[in-house]
Structure formats: structure tokens, C-alpha cells
Amino acid sequence: MKFNVFILCVFMILSNLSYAQIVFEKSWESAQSRAKQEKKHIFVDAYADWCGPCKQMAKEVFTDVTVGEFYNTNFISVKIDMEKEGTAFASKYSVDAYPTLIYFDADLKVVNKNVGSLGVSQFLNLGRRIVQKSPELETAKTNFKKDPKDAAFAKAYMYEFLKTNDMGEASNVAQKYLNNIPQEQHITAENLEFLYFAALKKTKYLDYAYQNREKVLQIKSGEIILKQLILEVYTPDLKEVFAVKEEVIKKVENIKTKIQKKYPIDAPAINAKIDMVYAQNFEGDNMFKYMDIYYSKYCVNSKEINASISNFLQSPKDNALILQKIKVWSERVESMEKNTSNMLNTVDILKRLGYKKEALAKAEEAKSIAKDAQETKQAEKYIQELK
Questions:
Q1: CATH code for 21-131?
Q2: According to the model, what pLDDT value does residue 241 have?
Q3: Domain spans of the chain?
Q4: Cα–Cα distance measured from residue 293 to residue 168, given in angstroms and rounded to the nearest whole number
């Protein structure tokens, strides 16, 4: 009797373990067969064995208990290496970046295709949206269908897909909206966001934006959006390059040459960022050199520069040479957007460098333009420390 109880306990433990993560079919063929028999959707993890984000999802997302329970109940799942047994699959379903998460119904119709890795909550939400119709999504879809020229309806519908990081469907909505309005209306403060997401899948929208670059630059954050978009379009190529070390320099240079040829005005800034990312991956000793080139000369995103400044200021030990460099970054941010917060970053750097008189003068100036009590208090704190 005790032995039987022991066997039962072992069986229950093994059952729970098998259900604590996604159970994958051994092949695409067996997944199709089971899906037809059980009338279930199919989830395909289209990956490559060198892909870092793919490995991260396999380790942290597919093994999650809640994910396992939901996907094992509602889907037949299969993993396919796109560069080995899955080359024909990759060609048929246009898989050119990893991971690509593809969902089919029982009749093998693609119902969703997500490019890029997802966290646990995003992955669960995506699965739930496929098997359980979201009332918010259905409402947004109905409204957009009634009036595809309405920017508010289009944005609400697009954002339903962005909630689950479904860039493919978000891009489709953006394209449909733009295709329903005159092209001369594409580049406006309201529509630039649609142009961004449309261009992620169709480069003709990026080409149009670049042809009208001066008009884009007149819109707040237009230059940041345009540069980021060019970089995003080449992200799949860069991910592949940075995942493997073989001939990496040659591949990076090829991508930079393409960008230089097609987007000559913005290429220096974009390629400087690529150099910085390359150094972060492969040349740790030279990383700061390339960061300094990018942030002191090219980056036009004050938030991005401030984030890097904050990282260096959190270091327990100050380096005078680095502080001198990031002082230039901080002053550059001030020239983009002069406010108390940005000025106090410079005050902090000056204080660490021992330039107390200069730091005090800037702290007092920062206080004079403070917008609220909190900013005033922060400035006063530095003033007291520097007197």
C-alpha cells in the first residue's frame, strides 16, 4: 500500500513538472496532426540556435508555470530551428528575424505573427488574445472598420496590438490608416507615429519620410524618431551580426555602408551608434571611446544621454577623465532642453570635479527656473552643500 502511494506521488510530481513548462511537439508534422485531431491552435517558436533573445525566452518564459499551464491547455506548441530543419518553413512564412512567434488555427491559417522576444505577461496576453477575443480589441476593430480615416480610432486599434508587442499587426493597422488618407498628411505631429510603425514593415514609408526630412524635423522629436526608425529597420541585420563573432567587423561595415548610401545626412549619427553598440559587445576596453563620440557629437535624444550620465554617476568611484567627458554630454543636454533637472546633472558633475564656484552658480541658476517645490528643494540642497 505504501509503495502504491509512493508511485502515485511520483506520478503526480512528474505530471506537475511536465505541466510547469510548455510541452513542445517533436516536429511540425506532429504538431499539425495533433492540432487537427484536438481542434486547437498551434504555437510555433521560430528560432535560431545562436539567437540570444530566443535562449532567454526558452529559459525564462517557456518554463514559467502559468505560461506552461495556459499554453499546454490551449495550444499545440512546437519549436523549429529556422536555419536547420526549418528552412522551408522560414521561406514559406517569411521568417527573417528571431525569435518569430507564429500562431495558426487548426486549419493552418496564420492568425498572428510576432517578431521579437516577449516577457511572461506579454506572452500570456498574446496567447489569451488569440484564443479569447478581447472586448477592447473587438470594439477598436469595429470602430476602425467603420472609419479607417479616423486617427483616434486607428490609434486605439493599433495600441491594442502594441499592448502585446505585436508589431506586425500594429504595423498593418498603421499602413491601412495611412493608405486611407492623402500622402501629404502622413507627415504631421499626429500621424508621425503611424508612419513610424508602418515603416517598421514597409520601408517605402521610411523612404517617404526621408525624402521629406526637413518637414519631419519641424515636428517635435521628429529627428529622434527618424534616426531611431532607420536604426530599427536595420535591427534584424544588427542582431544577427552581434550574435556571432565570425566576420563581425565585415558584416557591421556592410550594414554601415548601406545606411551611408541610402541615408547620407543621418548616417554619421546612426553609424556612430552602431559603433558604440559593437564596442559594448566586442570591445569593452574601447566602449567609452565610442560612447563619447556618439553622446558628445551625434545623439539628439536628451533622455538617452541622461540615462547614460546617470549610470556613470552611480559609480562608487569617480574617474576624473570620464567626468570631464560626461560634463560635455550634460552641457549638450542643457543646450537641447534647459531645465532644472538637466542643469542639476551638470551641477553634480562639477561638484565631483571640485569646481565648486562654477557648480554653485549653476545650482542657483537652476533654482531660478524651477517649476515646482520639488525642483526648488533639489536645487537648494546643492546650494547648501556648495556654500
A1: 3.40.30.10
A2: 60
A3: 21-131, 135-220, 317-387
A4: 34
